[in-house]
Amino acid sequence: MNNSEVRALRKAFNSVKIRQAQNPPDNFEERKKRLTASRELCVGNEKLLAISIANLRKNGIIVHLVKDKDEAVNKILNELGDEKLVVKSKSNVTKEIELTKTLEKKGLTVVETDIGDRILQVLKASPSHPTGPVTHLSAKEIAKGLSTHYGMPIKDDPDEIVKIVREDVISNIIRAKVGITGANAITAEEGSIVMTHNEGNIYEVMRKEKHIVVTSIDKIYPDLESAMNMLKILSYNATGAIIPSFVEIISGVSKTADVEKKFIKGVHSPSEITVILVDNRRSELAKSGAKELLYCVGCGNCLIHCPMYNTIGNEFARGSHLGGKGIAYHSLYNNEKDEKLEYCLTCGKCRENCPLGIDIPEMIRRIRSTGLSSDVYYFLKSHTLWVYFQIILRLNLGSE
Question: In sequence order, what are the beta bridge partners of 197?
């Protein structure tokens, strides 16, 4: 447990809470109901998935539905061909399939273009929040690591840190011919890809000659209206803002019909778009009692309000699977009882602050308990651990 990281994490999370209090969205309860209805309709809906794929292809987009991470990586390698430089944007699905790590092992250079993810990549650190991956790192820690990587002194000033990392990212974007992004939604009715971002990097990455979108089958939405509703809820819960700076909607490659109304494709970049739709056991989970887990939109509001996560940070995580929800998913995916489930207090804060009301505590109880005595044991153990971590944290913070 790194005390400075936990302190930075709490500070960042508190700032989000303040922005949330200052920007209450209109009709939020109604929006959450609409989001729940669309998730219930779409997750595990094979017919709607087939319609989405058909409409993507109708729009001239290449689609690969892949079973697992190995197949996903192989498809991406085939799409990359002889290219040795790839620029990519933040994507939890690419983290899940360990795309960057695997491509680098194959001799490719992969550059994360999101400032936070690029810092993580350079520092070889783990993320602490799905939309704010370096929330747990102070400017001082970041500057120290970047100074070593770039071979020059960098001040622990956020403006200078962003400036240096941005210059690095832009130089690689200019040279690259292939860009990889994730997607927040795929809409069935329109066959569209929806992506949101604040930094503007996705706009640059998706405009390379070839754009590869890596996302998962649980990102299907009925239509653009339901996807936009989700984005507003995601943005508010993740950052406290009503809407992100940018929303990209892609419904095909660049084309023109200026001459005799005949469509000519590939006028500007991208001239080719490929979507890799990853299953990776989601269809199995959707048919089990864990379907509700797949409703998650990745806002991270559960982490912001989790007492244990605010005490030990991403020690309460398994790789890129963060907090109680992440550990539950990891356990179900691997069909094993992860020992980090013991950390969960089953206090219900995650459920109360989830826009979909996903009952993570109950799911964790089911995974780790076989009876009343076992449930009581885990309750007492998790609370004892939390008290212990709180005492250690306060003693250490008091000594700094």
Answer: 246
Of 179, 222, 164, whose CA–CA distance to 91 is shortest? 179
pLDDT for the residue 384:
78
Are 187 and 94 within one domain?
A: yes
Q: Given the structure tokens 């806002």, which residue do they identify?
A: 299
CATH of the domain at 253: 3.40.50.10420
* Category of 281 on φ-ψ map: left (φ > 0), alpha (ψ -120 to 50) or beta: left
Q: How confident is the model at residue 201 (pLDDT cuts 50, 70, 90)?
A: very high
The answer to whether the CB of 178 falls within 8 A of the CB of 212 is: yes
Find where tokens 């810092």 sit. 119
Cα distances from 238 to residues 93, 179, 203, 242, in angstroms, run 18, 25, 20, 10
143 and 62 within one domain: yes
* Boundary of a domain, candidates 254, 282, 310: 282
Helix or strand run (H / E) with residue 162: helix 158-175
Residues 215, 306, single domain; the answer is no
Output the six-digit token pair for 147. Answer: 């100074």
Radius of gyration of the chain (CA): 21
Separation of alpha carbons 378 and 150, rounded Å: 46
CB-based contacts of 220, cutoff 8 Å, min separation 6: 42, 43, 45, 48, 49, 52, 185, 186, 187, 188
For residue 131, name the pLDDT band (cuts at 50, 70, 90): confident
Element (H, E) at 79: helix 69-80
CA distances from 38 to 13, 77, 185, 228, 356 (A): 28, 33, 12, 12, 11
Rounded to the nearest 10 degrees, the angle between the axes of helix 28-42 and helix 224-239 is: 120
> Which structural domain, as residue segments, surrounds residue 179?
3-282
